[in-house]
Write a structure and sequence with these properties.
Helix content: 10-25%
Oligomer: single chain
Low-confidence stretches: 1-16, 355-369
Largest sheet: 5 strands, antiparallel
Number of helices: 9
Shape: globular
Radius of gyration: 21 Å
Order of helices and strands: EEEEEEEEHEEEHHEHHEEEEHHHH
Length: 369
């Protein structure tokens, strides 16, 4: 039986602090076919391409153009317009999605300096792992004044694996699990000498091996992502010893690329021309990066993100268990029990990172080379 999940007490969606303006007011409809986006962008149905457009796309309702405002908006609350129109998703105060035109959405995420935007990771995946289906990015930008990123992308076809699960036969579920396992292994062929993002910057979250912030365990997370430093193997060993009280049972010399959160809500499936279900897109790449190979199967076994949220009782674990054992069949190891021991040590000894602190006591990169 695969390990079930990490204990409660590490909330994902309890936020007590807000961006200015709040994330759910990042985009608003100003009038017919005109959107305000952040502090300095307007997006409108212009009917035809315009000369000053930063990006243009055609949809079923006409031609849309993105361009800069003549003067930026201040971070006022509330901004002008109606922000409730076509907002299809909201996660606390750090992430939201709006449907801008029939087949194009805009994803807004909280941002801090040093954070790699999701669009950059998707671009890397397209260039380096072309067999993995990902959303098509139209245009992305950082709004430094409002401290958030914006990403216009095409709506990916299909529905989430969560939504489709009850409609899938046992054979099709196995097929989907095989496809996702192959994507995980294909991505893991790319290696790095350090724990970092695809573009070489520090990753966010993944506190199980990098250390939790105290706020994450008390329901006090604010909008700012928890950005960790780039770590070399010896630095990771020292980090695990400090937060977990024991050395990693396996020596790590390099790290492999991994999506980071490939649970049922982030896997889209759709029927092909033969009316057969397949993976149509893997979404939400913001926590992707290079990790120890053993961490991939371990986090799948432990993290609640791999549960089927629409299922109850034992069926909720069906996806995580399939993926956990598919990887085992392909020769991947795990250290779930060891990680749980480390977590117990962390909680028992109250070892957490402070706000703004991404390191405990670590040797410098120069001393690890």
């Amino acid at each position: 039986m695969a390990p079930k999940f990490l204990p409660r007490g590490l909330p994902r969606d309890e936020f007590t602090r807000q961006m200015t303006p709040p994330c759910d007011l990042s985009i608003s409809l100003l009038g017919s076919n005109v959107w305000s986006m952040g502090s300095d962008m307007l997006c409108e149905n212009t009917g035809a391409p315009v000369a000053d457009a930063l990006s243009t796309w055609k949809d079923s309702d006409g031609t849309w153009s993105l361009r800069r405002r003549t003067s930026p908006l201040k971070a006022i609350t509330p901004p002008p317009g109606d922000s409730d129109v076509n907002r299809t998703y909201l996660c606390g105060n750090a992430s939201a999605i709006w449907l801008i035109s029939p087949n194009v959405l805009c994803k807004v995420k909280s941002w801090i300096p040093g954070l790699a935007p999701e669009a950059e990771t998707i671009k890397w995946v397209v260039e380096n792992c072309p067999t993995i289906p990902v959303p098509k990015v139209i245009y992305s930008w950082i709004d430094e004044a409002w401290q958030r990123s914006f990403c216009l992308m095409e709506v990916a076809p299909g529905v989430t694996l969560d939504e489709a699960w009850n409609d899938l036969s046992a054979e099709t579920r196995e097929l989907i699990a095989d496809e996702v396992t192959t994507y995980i292994i294909d991505a893991a062929q790319h290696v790095s000498p350090s724990i970092c993002t695809a573009t070489g910057t520090g990753i966010i979250y993944h506190g199980l091996i990098l250390g939790f912030h105290k706020s994450e365990t008390e329901g006090m997370r604010d909008w700012r992502p928890h950005l960790h430093n780039v770590l070399l193997p010896k630095q990771l060993d020292q980090r695990l010893l400090l937060i977990g009280g024991q050395k990693c049972p396996e020596e790590v010399t390099e790290f492999v690329f991994f999506h980071g959160d490939i649970g049922p809500p982030n896997i889209l499936v759709d029927k092909d021309k033969n009316d057969e279900w397949h993976v149509s897109s893997i979404i939400d790449w913001e926590t992707a990066g290079y990790f120890p190979a053993w961490y991939i199967r371990s986090i799948i076994g432990l993290d609640r993100a791999y549960l089927l949220n629409r299922q109850t009782d034992g069926e909720a674990y069906a996806w995580k268990e399939k993926l956990f054992y598919k990887l085992e069949q392909r020769g991947w190891g795990e250290y779930c029990d060891w990680l749980m021991q480390c977590l117990e040590y962390t909680q028992k000894n109250d070892i957490y990172l402070s706000r703004g602190e991404s390191d405990l006591v670590l040797p410098t990169i120069e001393n690890c080379q």
